[in-house]
Structure formats: C-alpha cells, structure tokens
Design a protein that fits this description.
- By secondary structure, this protein is α/β, with parallel strands linked by helices.
- The protein has one domain: Ribonuclease Z/Hydroxyacylglutathione hydrolase-like (Metallo-beta-lactamase, Chain A, 4-Layer Sandwich), CATH 3.60.15.10.
- The protein contains five helices and twelve strands.
- It has a six-stranded mixed β-sheet, with no helix packed on it.
- Strand 1 and strand 2 form a beta hairpin.
C-alpha cells in the first residue's frame, strides 16, 4: 500500500490497482498542497464528514473536471450537500467501507454525521473522531484539534493497537511544533510496539 499525505486530513491511498483520495478539504486547497495535474488517474474520493477542512466543494469540482469518472463515497449528510451541487455519490464499495462514528463535541454548534472509513481492509481513517474501539493495521490518527488533544489521540491508539500510525489533522500546528511532536510521538509509540510514520505533506510511503 502506498500512502501520500496532502495536508491536514487529506491522504491518497493506492492499493489493489485503485487510488482513493480521502478528505480533500479547504486547507489542502488553500495551501496548494495537492496538485491534481500530477495524477494520472483517480478512482474514488472518500469523505468522512461535511466540515470544510475535510470537504471543500471547489476542490472536489476541480478534481471531477479532470477525472469525471471518479466516484465519491460518503455518508448521507455529505451526499445531501453534494447533491445540491449536482455531484453524485455512492454509499460504499468493495474498497471503501463506512461505519458511523461520532464526531467529537465542538463548541461552534452541533456535530455532523461522521463516518469512519476502512480502505482496502488495511487502513482506518476516523474523520473527526477518537471515540472508536477498533482499527485496521494502519491508523490515520487525528493528532490535534479544537475538539481533541494529542494526549487523547495517543490514548486512543493505545486502546485500538494499530501496527502503524499515520498522523493526520495537524494543520493547526506550526511546522516547527509539528516536527518536535512527531519526534516525541515516534519515540513514545516505539515503546508501545507501534510504528509512527512522520509523514510530511507531499511525502509518500509504502507499507
């Protein structure tokens, strides 16, 4: 499996001859982290929930203009929003499985519907949730957020015990802070028999 990070919670996952882009949000769009012209193809976009840092409609439209056969896999709430833009979605398929997982409480208003994604049976992306009790071998772990904390994230990882951790949801950190905490988290998780991949934006790894 090849995993490339494109800022915040946006990752590209390639396996079994298919490509899946997860949560292309506004931070990825504004920071120009993702260059879709570098892609030769894209099979699916998977979206965990409707917040702009996970789903930015102008970026989705830009992607679909280049790859019109790309299918979007998401939940009912996101599907309703996209349908108003004449963008079709599907519920799930053999490569992407969805499970309702609560979005953590936020002070700005009610929490939206949130879906935990399982990709290729090997990678778990929980969106904006740390309230889940299982993970695939690879976990995309939300590291910091207005609704969570790094300590809570580490406690969640210790509970669900993935073999490998990919850090996501870290736009709120300055690059200097990110590098410091990545080093600390790598050391911490090694002691707990887990591998923490210090994945930078635009960097790809094979697992």
């Amino acid at each position: 499996m090849k995993i490339t990070k494109y800022g915040h919670s946006c990752i590209l996952v390639e396996d079994q001859g298919k490509t899946i882009l997860v949560d292309p949000g506004i931070y990825t769009y504004n920071d120009k982290t993702l260059n879709i012209n570098s892609f030769s193809s894209l099979d699916f976009i998977a979206i965990t929930h409707e917040h702009a840092d996970h789903m930015h409609i102008p970026l989705i439209e830009e992607i679909l203009n280049k790859f019109p056969k790309t299918q979007i896999v998401t939940n009912h709430s996101v599907a309703n929003i996209l349908s108003k833009e004449n963008i079709e979605t599907i519920k799930e398929n053999e490569y992407i499985k969805l499970e309702n997982t609560p979005h953590e409480k936020i002070f700005m208003g009610p929490s939206p519907e949130n879906s935990m994604l399982t990709l290729f049976g090997r990678l778990t992306h929980p969106g904006d949730s740390l309230s889940f009790n299982k993970s695939s071998d690879i976990l995309a772990l939300p590291i910091t957020a207005p609704w969570g904390s790094t300590t809570w994230a580490t406690e969640t990882a210790l509970r669900v015990k993935p073999k490998t951790i990919i850090p996501i949801h870290d736009w709120h950190w300055k690059d200097e802070a990110r590098k410091i905490f990545y080093d600390r988290l790598e050391e911490y998780f090694i002691k707990n028999n887990m591998v923490f991949k210090k994945l930078e934006n635009g960097e790809a790894i094979e697992i």
